[in-house]
């Protein structure tokens, strides 16, 4: 049996908001392993930054051939609309062109749910 005080604390705790951010790279485009690719989440005046990592490309040691999905857990008090910003250091392996691409998405946090955010990358030009 769960003591009444403990049960009251557990039931009153607000669920922690969470995001899963996926960066979708097109064929022949990789994430520069030396660049500081990152995801920033902004809620009001508060910001949290998270570095991206990836799957190494055996043919190009300075490049990730795919970005690993990023799971983000935010403080319990964060709710409503947030902005997810991506700063991506990209390399087109076919043309040898490297660029920085930025994009942002506005999403609504849902209590107790993990919100998926997809950042599709366009090939560098």
Supply database-style keywords.
about 5% helix; mainly beta; about 120 residues; 10 strands; seven-stranded antiparallel sheet; three-stranded mixed sheet
Model description:
The chain has 125 residues and is mainly β. It has 1 helix and 10 strands. Strands 2, 3, 4, 5, 6, 8 and 9 form a 7-stranded antiparallel sheet that branches. Strands 7-1-10 form a 3-stranded mixed sheet, with no helix packed on it. Strand 8 (81-92) and strand 9 form a beta hairpin. The N and C termini lie far apart (63 Å). The model is unreliable at 6-12 (pLDDT under 50).
Count of strand segments: 10
Q: What oligomerization state is this entry in?
A: single chain
Task: Note the gap between the termini.
Answer: 63 Å
Give the overall shape: elongated
Task: Tell me the fraction of residues in β-strands, as a range.
Answer: over 45%
* Structural classification: mainly beta
What is the alpha-carbon Rg in Å? 18 Å
Strand-and-helix sequence, N→C?
HEEEEEEEEEE
Helical percent range? Answer: under 10%
Low-pLDDT segments? 6-12
Chain-averaged pLDDT: 88
Count the DSSP helices: 1
The largest β sheet comes out as:
7 strands, antiparallel
